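queue> pop job 88
queue> type: inverse folding (structure -> sequence)
queue> payload:
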């Protein structure tokens, strides 16, 4: 188990790099990605954990798009810059400082000033991922006096915005915990959950999970010693809960459309009681884009 935890930490701390163009912007050397190319270009990257956006004109002038806060109010400087660069021909009323909103705005402007321009903005496109996983768990929300771990395996279907900057996803998960001789408990769980990516890069993402609805089909054997008389009773139970179970995980990109997944689950739950054992619920898996 200690080796597994060390491997997990190693993956979490490993950094991934990719080739990007280097620019000098107001004396600052930056690696930026080109999102839109036309009469007006859109450049961006995640720098020191913050999303930063830039526009580049036909004269290669690069200006950062900012939205600073002063006296409790956002100044929306990025709107003023884009009004100037588009000659006040585009409305910025609904323009947000997000990758897709900026991409859609600049893409629309380029289309109006250049008849040969090929639009690249696509709205509301969902991406689907399918994965399988396996690992070990001590089932911290059931009685386990010896803190035993048992194998688990399962599959997951994830839905997220194809917009590469999106941090949000929903998932449907099927998990089975295997019974063993020392801990005669097994369960098959169907869970619906939400995922938020704290770190969201093309090659690596780190996220928090919450399973807010679960349906469990459980089987357990309870052994009772009553004054030297040993009795054994088997229970089969189907239970629907809204437990809000929290965990963390990571996706590590290995090819253009596939990822290695690492997860540390069942850290705590808002509406389920821990039965005295700190979570030892670890899994490793593989997922791919559909």
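queue> result:
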């Amino acid at each position: 188990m200690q080796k597994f935890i060390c491997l997990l930490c190693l993956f979490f701390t490993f950094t991934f790099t990719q080739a990007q163009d280097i620019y000098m912007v107001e004396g600052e050397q930056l690696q930026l990605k080109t999102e839109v190319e036309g009469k007006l270009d859109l450049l961006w990257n995640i720098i020191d954990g913050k999303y930063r956006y830039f526009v580049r004109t036909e004269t290669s002038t690069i200006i950062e798009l900012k939205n600073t806060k002063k006296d409790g109010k956002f100044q929306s400087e990025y709107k003023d810059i884009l009004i100037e660069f588009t000659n006040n021909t585009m409305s910025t009323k609904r323009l947000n400082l997000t990758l897709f909103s900026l991409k859609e705005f600049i893409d629309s402007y380029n289309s109006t000033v250049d008849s040969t321009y090929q639009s690249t903005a696509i709205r509301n496109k969902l991406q689907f991922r399918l994965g399988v996983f396996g690992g070990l768990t001590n089932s911290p929300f059931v009685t386990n006096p010896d803190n035993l771990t048992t194998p688990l395996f399962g599959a997951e279907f994830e839905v997220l915005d194809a917009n590469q900057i999106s941090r949000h996803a929903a998932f449907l998960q099927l998990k089975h915990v295997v019974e063993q001789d020392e801990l005669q408990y097994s369960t098959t769980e169907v869970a619906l959950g939400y995922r938020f990516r704290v770190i969201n890069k093309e090659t690596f993402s780190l996220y928090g999970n919450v399973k807010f609805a679960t349906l469990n089909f459980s089987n357990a054997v309870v052994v009772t010693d009553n004054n030297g008389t040993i009795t054994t009773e088997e229970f089969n139970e189907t239970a629907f809960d809204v437990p809000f179970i929290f965990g963390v995980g990571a996706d590590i990109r290995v090819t253009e459309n596939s990822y290695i997944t690492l997860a540390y689950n069942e850290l705590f739950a808002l509406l389920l009681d821990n039965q005295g054992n700190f979570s030892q619920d670890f899994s490793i898996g593989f997922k791919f884009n559909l």
